[in-house]
Amino acid sequence: MPLFVAQYPIGINSRVEAIILQLEIGSDDVRMLGIYGPGGVGKTTIAKAIYNKILDHFEGINFLENVKDKSGTFDGIIQLQEILLRETLGMNGQLKVRSESKGTVAIGNILHNKRILLILDDVDKLYQIERLIGGCDWLASGSRIIITIRNKHLLQTLSIRHSTYEVKGLDNHEALELFSMHAFHKNKPKEDYSKLIDQVICYAKGLPLALSIIGANLHGRSEMEWKSALDKYKMISDKDIQKVLQVSYQELDETEQDIFLDLACFFKGLYKEWAGPSDPTLAQQRRGISA
Fold first, then answer.
1. Which residues form the domain of 199?
2. Which runs of E-coded beta strand occur in 39-184?
3. Which entry of 57, 87, 103, 163 is 20 to 30 Å from 242 by CA?
4. Buried (b) or exposed (e) across 237-272, using 16+ Cβ within 10 A?
């Protein structure tokens, strides 16, 4: 099945085509490519679009999302290994891995016999790569490994031939179109908001995540409310986009903040601990996410 990429995939196609050229799908050697860039720049979105475009060229395909977060949980690596084995083998039933070491050996045995496309999303430690693909020389001819990372230097310790692609922020035209789609639900902004929009584009620094969140936050609001939000952005350092996103979160009313945090907890797997609205464990987890 293809993956959902983005509601408004603006600026994606040119970057996807450039990366596919680097992958040289027709060649029989094994290739690894690292897609790197800051958080919120669209690495995962681009990786999903690539996956959809080239998946038919491989015998086995797998997209492991949020490797960093999942590997940090109890038995997280084992769970990722189980997913990788099941999906590469095309299994719908249960498959149990008893230990990380056994899982790595099992993966090696499978990867050696199949031309695969494997995408490891949001990797931040070398051991995550080693546990999930074992020795890179195990990979079958023609296989492709794509890794999304923030720091490209992580790949320099690997012996496998690899290349890198830096994802840069959207240019002003792309940023304006993406922001307009979220703020006005059309690809052109309202003319009387042009000066305010210029400020938003400046603050977002071409990061699709920031443009999407800020645009959605300002959608349907008055010009006065826009100015109030932008006054808060002026107090934030240009380099600290995370605080810009925090301001957008704080603009939500209390109920909307609760919904946002509940969804964030759900996607991080923290809902398993939920005993109710007053559960102190959940409250602590939600506070950590909001921070």
1. 172-290
2. 60-64, 116-120, 144-149, 162-166
3. 163
4. eeeebeebbebbeebeeeeeeeeebbebbeeeebee
CA distance 214 to 245: 7
Crossing angle for the helix pair 241-250 and 194-204, nearest 10 degrees?
Answer: 130
Report d(CA 98, CA 78) in Å as an integer. Answer: 8
Does 177 share its domain with 161?
no
Please tell me whether residues 144 and 176 are part of one structural domain.
Answer: no
Maximum mean pLDDT: which of 4-13, 151-160, 219-228, 264-273:
4-13
- In the sheet that holds 31-36, the strands lie side by side as 60-64, 116-120, 144-149, 31-36, 162-166
Q: 181 with 167: CB under 8 angstroms?
A: no
Burial of 38 (0-12, 13-18, 19+ CB in 10 A): middle
Are 212 and 181 within 8 A, CB to CB? Answer: no
Question: Residue 277: which pLDDT band, with cuts at 50, 70 and 90?
Answer: very low
Rounded CA gap, 78 and 103, in Å? 7
Among the candidates 166, 182, 216, a domain finishes at: 166
Is residue 118 within 8 Å of 90, Cβ to Cβ?
no
Per residue in 41-64, pLDDT (tens digit) is 999 999 999 999 999 999 989 999
Tokens of 60: 């086995």
Residue 156 sits in the same domain as residue 178: no
